[in-house]
Amino acid sequence: MTFIVAPVAVLIGAGIVLALIDGTRRAAGVVAIAALTVATVMLCVLLGRVAADGPQAVVAGGWPADVGITLRVDALGAVFAATSLAIVLACAVQTVLRGVSSRITLALTVFMGAGLTGLFLTGDIFSFYVFFELAMICAYGLTAAEGTEGRFRAAFTFAVVNLVGSFLFLIAIGALYRATGTLEMLAVAERAAELNPNTALLLAVTFLVAFGVKLGLFPFHAWLPAVYLAVPAWIAAMFAGALANIGAYGLVRFGGAILPRELGVAAVAVIALGGVSIAYGAVQAMSRRATREVLAYSSIGHAGYVLVALGLGGPVGLAAAVIFSIANSLNKALLFLSAELRGPLTAGVFLVGTLSVAGVPPSAGFFGKAALFEAGVDAGSIATVVLLFVGGALSFVYLLQIYQHDRWRPREERDVPTPKEIAPRAQRTVAAVVAAVVLALGLWPQPLLAIGDQAAAELTVEAPR
Fold it and tell me: Can you give the pTM of this predicted structure?
């Protein structure tokens, strides 16, 4: 069971080494890529074990589960951890190939990977908070790295807004411990049914706001466009494809397993909030012409789909939330990584991401949207099905608009890259590999669908009766 600890240990060890050396040197890039690759492979192996044998857990020092630090991996945590760290790896490779200009960039990237991995694999809520803050602090640092005025301003906005979310989350943790006497997730899930309904609903709302801020849901989205536009494309890809998974995972974990009764009570409000986020993101994206600005507002809209799936509830709704979140994280990483690349294959790679976000087969995004439609039909919610259809159509329209603007206009009407502006083949290859994964999951979706169903089944078992 110590294999559960190994990915986090590898990343923290590599992060310490990188913090002590000059991160702009080639050796630092080798250390970072090697550590992220090893940890990603470990998480993929762990995901395979969980898919075959079910959840696994280990408690540090042999303490009782409700006293010691618990690491527990199930289908939900394993798939989020493996996907998020693979995206961090792709982004790190992209920046190493391009050239690292700040000595702390790689250390922060690896530590952020450690934070993400730890929070997806932890089995107690306080450890979740610790890893959660580690990942967020690294994100603030990456936003401010290189010291430009615009990035300092974006980092300040990012930190202030997200610290409010962190503060609310910490308050909710304290109240939850006061009410249940434990922070071990399985024990909390068992005792949640005995909570006073008003107390439990207040806790659920607090967790919703805290994770909504991290995910960039409307109306908690103020920080997101400013940050995604200020940072380099590879950092925006990492934030949209990996860091945002904190919010999606937290909503599914806490709403699906720990406070499902409260989620059911507020289902209509949750779906309505998700629908507003979808509409707001789509309208704002359609009014923009800069590619990364469109993608930033698109991220706000797509965050709403997770809430809609949760509001629909049940095993089908939870599975849809997981499947869509994984597909969407790959799509966003692909679009941000390829948005500013020029040269052979780049237009095709960006088109793959565009079609996947719109839900066009064969792509991972098609099955993400299909799972949402299935959840809507299963719940008998015609209004939700219509909302999903309209949201998908709007996504196709605004992404096709920027594709035409950037890639299809006549050569004399757009900036044609000079030889110096054409991205090196290695950088284009990284984006092409991510595009290949998106296509592969569209052609062979069974693993993604199976892990989504398994995650939903395990959450339903954990949920209080």
Answer: 0.92
Identify which of 104, 89, 128 has the alpha carbon closest to the alpha carbon of residue 11: 89
- Cβ-proximal residues to 272 (8 Å cutoff; 6+ apart), any chain: none
CA distance 292 to 306: 22
Token representation of residue 341 = 């690349």
Task: Domain ranges for the chain, please list them.
Answer: 2-410+421-462
Give the span between the Cα atoms of 101 and 86, in whole angstroms: 23
Cα 214 to Cα 51, 58, 219, 300, 348, distances in angstroms: 28, 28, 12, 11, 31
- Mean pLDDT over 75-80 rounds to 94
C-alpha 315/C-alpha 26 separation (Å) is: 47
Peptide bond preceding 362: is omega within 30 degrees of 0, i.e. cis? yes
Residue with tokens 């793959």: 352
The number of residues in the chain equals 465
List, in order, residues 6 or more apart from 195 with CB less than 8 Å away.
Answer: 179, 180, 203
Asked whether the beta carbons of 323 and 423 are under 8 A apart, the reply is no
Question: Look-up: residue for tokens 């090196």?
Answer: 424
- 105-163, pLDDT tens digit by residue? 999 999 999 999 999 999 888 889 999 899 999 999 998 887 677 788 888 888 888 88
Specify whether the CB–CB gap between 242 and 88 falls below 8 A. yes
14 contacts 110 by C-beta, under 8 angstroms:
yes
**Residue 154 Cα distances to 106, 128, 228, 244, angstroms:** 20, 26, 9, 17
In whole angstroms, give the CA distance from residue 168 to residue 11.
28
Identify residue 292 by its one-letter amino acid code.
Answer: R
pLDDT for res 114: 95
Tens of pLDDT along 238-248?
A: 999 999 898 88
Taking the C-alpha atoms of residue 238 and residue 384, their distance in angstroms, rounded to an integer, is 30
Half-sphere exposure of 139 (CA within 13 A, CB side): 32
